[in-house]
Amino acid sequence: MGPGNTTTRTRRRAVPWALLGLWVALLAFVAPFASKLADVQHDRAVDYLPASADSTQVAKIQDQLPGGETTQMVVVYHRDGGLTVADKTTAADQIGEIASAHTLAAQPEGIPSKDGTTLMYPVASTEPGTDEKARDQLVNDVRDIAKSEDGLSVEVGGEGAFATDASEVYNSLGGPLLYTTAAVVALLLILIYRSPFLWLVPLAVAGLADYLSMGVAYGLNQGFGTSVTGQSSAIMTILVFGAGTDYALLLISRYREELRRIERPYDAMVAALRGCGPAVLASSGTVAAGLFCLLAADLNSIRGMGPLGTVGILCALVAMMTLLPAILVLLGRRVFWPLVPRYGSTPKVRRSLFAAMGSSAGRRPLTVLAGGAVLLGALALGTLNLPGSLKLEDSFTSKPDAVAAMETLSKAYPGFGTQPITVIAPTDRADAALAEAQDTPGVDSATRGRSGDGWTEITVTAASAPQSAGETATIKDLRDRLDGSYVGGASAEQLDLADTNARDRLVVVPLVLVFVLLILIALLRSIVAPLILVAAVAAVWGAALGIGGLVFGPVFGFEGTDPGLGLLSFVFLVALGVDYGIFLMHRMREESLKGTEPVQAALIALRTTGGVIASAGLVLAATFAVLMNMPMVQLVEMGFVIAVGVLLDTFLVRTYLVTSASVALRRKVWWPGALSKEPAAGSRELPEPVTETVGMR
């Protein structure tokens, strides 16, 4: 044994321990910051609104007015048979107690319904300002004071109450979301690996990657003002576990292969990283690039999701390419027990599902391709059945107090605006703006409010119900008439969200397609293959949305879809779906470079990567499906569409359509690269024997 061998053995022992030590130090460094991420999470309207919209300007200017931002509530008293004198006395006493306990913008005045069953008191306070915890405390205090008694129903609704109910939902997501995601991933890994120990390693590494991403996200917030919302932090966790586990599956599958061929675990891991590393780097880079394109969005919530999603993907990549290999090498072959890959052993040969799929695609590629395209196109027609934009009261899967209050108001005050519209006008033109607002068709009343910093607040009550066609027309008329003023409020915010999402789709979707296409062209040295992959994931997106249109209303009973569903589902399905295309096409290119005939190269790639792609697709779909257990309709819809899209992509598009297209096009799939050219005369192309292993394959 020479000095060279001694140096090699020392390196084999030192490198994994050094990586483990670096991770311990890194996690110790980020620990104080990761625990603070929840403190900088904000779910105020301004954190979700379009950056340039009227409603955003209203929210910002209100912060600068005396007292700061106003928390608007409506206390609703109702009795089915009609309010009694005692009921009205109780209501007046409770409102008086609220006014004594808190600083209100004005003394609340009761507004009775025409049928005498309901009495509503608009309550507005500047006491919390922009402090969300103080706002939630105020709303909960009002609810504690305004309690039902002796058959009198009392509910607290309005914009402030909605915000509090939504905040409580988002604040409750962290723990359940993390535990449920970890449990789902653990179950799938146990079924995939059939080992009592191996599943723990990638799951633990994914958990540490999630912790690291929280610390990095907090640093971005402090250093660059990146917005952190309940929605974006939830998506970041899903991405870390979903994409991270995908990378782990690919690496461990390749590592298992190399352990049969190479004696020492360290050397086998080096070979595994060299083999699958480029594909993992390219796939993570594609996802990160797609998510980073969200910075071009005008919607605050979507733009803020870009950096957080990118952080999640990159943290998952770093963890799975450094920490996971180090732990696996230190644990050695025994971590695979009872299916330990022995050095020099040969995996059992079996006829796999993916071999059968490949054979069918290889026999009739054009028929399979045409049939799949027709199926996806038919499913995409379901988008015509998607319900309209989601209203505030339909945003929860269970009915909180704020929704119950709005439903009571809509029945007791039909055709009456129970949700104020806020106009912010320059103070020197406030009187003219007030007069113009009062003369606007659809306005029931308009009153002047606070003034400060050159701006004056005007509260407008519409003659139509909140978020109705009539109120929407009134808001648009106010914006057209009040030049130089801003029109906001809860209903205006929903209108701006829908309009801005439509604008963002026109900007972000082409940007994502261009970035993803350029990365694929650079990786595959081809134009045709990347175009096939991009067209495939776009078709999957349309089909998944179509399936959503078929079930959201008829099956789930949802009254609307989130305006951002189309854009976000597109970005995630394109970026994540291309991952599997990269795994498949990279292996196909690898086989072609060995001189394998094009059709055989496509079938070999499917047989050798089909198992790991299927496993990764199941894990990713399951992690997004966790969102369907959350109490917000927009999260349920997003989780459903992305989970269905990933399954379609995994078991239909990758296995059948991409393979069929590659078989049909043969060498042309690599045009204009060198692989697209016919081999020189006299050269031979021999297919390599393919074996299927038990476990991952």
Number of strands: 8
Helix content class:
55-70%
N- to C-terminal separation?
Answer: 39 Å
Instruction: Count every helix, treating DSSP H or I runs of 4 or more residues as helices.
Output: 21
| Global mean pLDDT | 85
Strands in their spatial order, largest beta sheet: 2-3-1-4
Q: In this structure, how is the largest beta sheet organized?
A: 4 strands, antiparallel
Structural class: alpha+beta
Outline: elongated
What does this 3D model show about the protein?
The protein is an alpha+beta fold. It is 63% helix and 7% strand. The strands form two sheets. Strands 2-3-1-4 form a four-stranded antiparallel sheet. Strands 6-7-5-8 form a four-stranded antiparallel sheet, with helices on both faces. Strand 6 and strand 7 (455-462) form a beta hairpin. Helix 8 (200-224) crosses helix 9, helix 9 (230-261) runs parallel beside helix 11 (300-331) and helix 10 packs antiparallel against helix 19. The longest helix is centred in the last third of the chain and has 35 residues, at 490-524. The radius of gyration is 29 Å and the shape is elongated.
